[in-house]
Design a protein that fits this description.
- InterPro entries: Thioredoxin-like_sf, Thioredoxin_domain.
- This is Thioredoxin family protein.
- It is globular, with a radius of gyration of 19 Å.
- By secondary structure, the protein is α+β, with helices and mostly antiparallel strands.
- A 4-stranded mixed sheet has the order 2-1-3-4, sandwiched between helices.
- It contains 8 helices and 4 strands; from the N terminus they run ααααβααβαββα.
- It folds into 2 domains: 58 residues, no CATH class; 119 residues, Glutaredoxin, CATH 3.40.30.
Length: 197
Amino acid sequence: MTSTGRHLAGRRLAASAKRIMARLVAESGMGEQVSPSCRHRRARLGEKLLSAAWSPAMSEARPFDEAEDASPCVAAARERAQDSGRALMLVFGANWCPDARAFAGFLEEPAITEGPGRRLETVLVDVGRHDRHQQLVAAFGLDVPLEGVPAVLVLDAGGRPIDADNLYRWRTARSADPGAVAAWLETILPPTSGDAS
């Protein structure tokens, strides 16, 4: 099943989960007349239901290497980007975050790999629970800890940030699709020497 198919199936499952959650709330009497702590627990339960229902395949994906030291990978990718004139995309994320996993999955779809992905060097950097690779986060001038994940930083071949104001644009990647990511990349990526006519 393609990512788009998983996305559509996930939306149907999410709608079902919302209906089930609403029914559970109605049956339990947890309506609007509940304390803030109960509303918080209800919201967390709803988030867990939606996260689990969104996409079973995504819940099993673990694209961020929790054991790897990303520093050498980032250094090598920077060098390749500089040598080839391509941009460098750093995706700061973690496997516990369904949006980070969704964004990483989008990068493997044809909308990206056969389009703007050809003009990119990409590195997925595991930040754990904001306790890993914080030196890399700081080295790129980002606030430590990050405000959320995924945080997507794109640099031109010279190492200058592109679209840095949208670092957290994909924090809700589950509600997007590979086409939206491809369109965004097309608008921000400079052409490589092979693209110029």
